Amino acid sequence: MSANGSDTENDAKFGEYGGQYVPEVLMPAIEELQSAYERYVLENEDDFMDEFRRHLRDFGGRPTPLQYADALSERYDRDIYLKREDLVHGGAHKLNNALGQVLLAKYMGKDRIVAETGAGQHGTATAMAATYLGIDCEVYMGRTDINRQRPNVFRMRTHDADVNPVDVGSGTLKEAINETMRDWATNVEDTHYVIGSVVGPHPFPRMVRDFQAVISEEAREQIQEQAGRLPDSVVACAGGGSNTMGAFHEFVGDEDVSLFAVEAGGSGLTIDEDEGLAPHSASLSTGENGVLHGARTKLLQSEDGQILESHSVSAGLDYSGVGPELAHLAETGRVTPVSVGDDAALEAFHRLSKLEGIIPALESSHAIAYLEAAEELGDLVVVNVSGRGDKDLDTVIEESEKRGIDAAPSMEVFE
Amino acid sequence: MSDRRSALGPAFRDEPALVPYVVAGDPNQEATKEYVNALARGGADVIELGLPFSEPIADGPTIQNAIQRALSGGMTPERYLDLVAELDVDVPIVCMTYYNLIYQYGDSEGVEAFVAAAGDAGISGLIVPDLPVEESDPLREACDEHGLDLVFIVAPTTTDEREAKILAQASGFVYVQARMGTTGAQANVSSATHDSLGRLAETDLPKAVGFGVSEGDHAKEIVAGGADGVVVGSALVDIIASGENVAERLESKATELKSGALSGEEEVPQPE
Ligand SMILES: Cc1ncc(COP(=O)(O)O)c(C=O)c1O
Question: ipTM of the assembly?
């Protein structure tokens, strides 16, 4: 690709997944993006990738450490390394992609960008990158997510981004994506849509993966340097799947490395078709093939094909679809999809905070929680800490108390 | 194209066509039947009946809300096809929906089952706004096999190159998207409409303009600009949403639009 210059493919599909299912009004923009992706990202025209890497380093704070986790290693009796994407500027891996796409928008001569956001992390990263690179930015965010991720709303506003609340449906990521697509369809001539994960029509899933692949490029080198060999497994949480694909990409060819994509199991893996909702977001583990937001992929949907509302305590995982490449890798058995429920994720949030002095994002807490299934992970494990949890503190305080999570500190003495 | 059997083409041949759009099941199935009849009485030549999908990314707020009402009222693809089969109008019906519903229909994945069932129910054609030509081969083949037209949208952004690809796949009519963005009634006709009609002037498929058309005068201007028909959705859905004298007002709105289109015909520049 991208980063290591080996993958020059630019197919619209991963096996049967992917494609370009968007209104005609957007197709010319997608063709334009496809050619920009080929030239600047794949062929490094005008030294695009060099400039991207420079921004990742100077503005983004890369490379991030691969930290040996003493206490976790002791607890699970194996060697556990944490890839510290929480240390990227802004507090999450999302900046890798946001910087790449905002820069690309500038190379393409666009003067406005729009983005959707769930947890607010992608919106924040995009707003930061837009300010840094000097381009106007507008963000769509579901009302439910605005209410549960207020610190990030404030951060976006601080960077002068306009945040547009989306009130339809359950007011989460799915609705925010619909609304951003509508904006894009109206303003496509001067606007680029900075999509927040490895989802959407081709070339987004490939391009976002290439921007995020820096995670596994670094991790692969670091683990060989620090542990002297490749890991037995890599674990990452999967909402849309961008930190997942970023953490996996350079390991996909290493057949001995197991790849675990941890989805949000919410409050259970059932589905309520009458209510049109799934109390989880495990589209990779339980979804059916279908077409949403521009791609053929695994989706939470009714038998008729209506998309179900998803649920997770973590806003960034609360999405009814998943990236098409991940769907393909799961289908072919290369990636193992697993899931972790809300309660287990909350427990893992407190566990990592107490054991290692790291407050993880609720999204990343799902990956941490999967360490409890230690046996199948092998002796040498890399876990991607996709982001830091400051944005989630309100939710964690409220939900831990409501659910009686043991590990949660009591705040009662101060009330 | 021209050698494809077309159920829709004839609707545009004699005079400018009115193509109204309403969402099936908004607010319920009985009402839809009544509204379809009212539109037919008002002069509709083809009726676009929306099969509601939960993620209507090509639609604006008016139609999104209508889709929400229809889904809350229990509309499903199965019930939609029953409803179409029970309709008693002479006007051909086009199903407008999103790809996932077509793909998911029936027990097996793929588009064939839906197209077959739609044909049996009496549907003459399909419009699928999130299906560009690049992905449309399977649906094109199924439509050919079952004798349905597959209508494609040409947008203001569509390049000449894409236009040629689209015209090679399209049948029935070409849907000319009048403006950027999503569906929704507008106060005037966009200049993009005239540009698009100009580019499509040589095309032998009928051209129907939609997205934002709401008044008889718009219909007149569009037909005078060289269109063979107008598609009107949100302006009708607004009437349905108001809930007041709906059938009566739909009929008179259709009459207004149709006579606008007819008067536009007199102004069409004649080829020398
Ligand atoms: C910290 C963090 N991790 C993970 C995710 C999930 O997204 P993805 O699966 O695309 O990495 C998000 C999304 O907002 C996030 O903020």
Answer: 0.95
What is the tens place of the pLDDT at every residue in A93-123? 999 999 999 999 999 999 999 999 999 999 9
Cα–Cα distance between B184 and B180 in angstroms, integer? Answer: 11
Q: Which 3 state secondary structure label does DSSP give B132? A: coil
Residues of B in contact with A27 (CB under 8 A): 132, 134, 155, 157-158, 162
| DSSP category for residue B271 | P
Residue A20 and residue B159: Cβ atoms within 8 Å?
no
Structure tokens that stand for B118 in this block: 């739609």
* Three-state DSSP class for residue B152: strand
**DSSP state letter for B200:** T
Question: A-chain residues within 8 Å CB-CB of B159?
Answer: 28
Cα(B228)–Cα(B246) distance, integer angstroms: 27
Q: Measured between alpha carbons, how far is A211 from A56 in angstroms, rounded to an integer?
A: 10
Dump the DSSP string for A303-362. TTSPBPBP--SSGGG--S---HHHHHHHHTTSEEEEEEEHHHHHHHHHHHHHHHS--B-H
Interface contact B103-A291, CB threshold 8 A: yes
Q: Confirm whether A314 is a catalytic residue.
A: no
3-state helix, strand, coil split of chain B in percent (to 5) is 45, 15, 40
pTM for the full predicted model: 0.95
Q: Which residue has the tokens 């990409």?
A: A249
The conformation of residue A277, written as its DSSP 8-state character, comes to: B
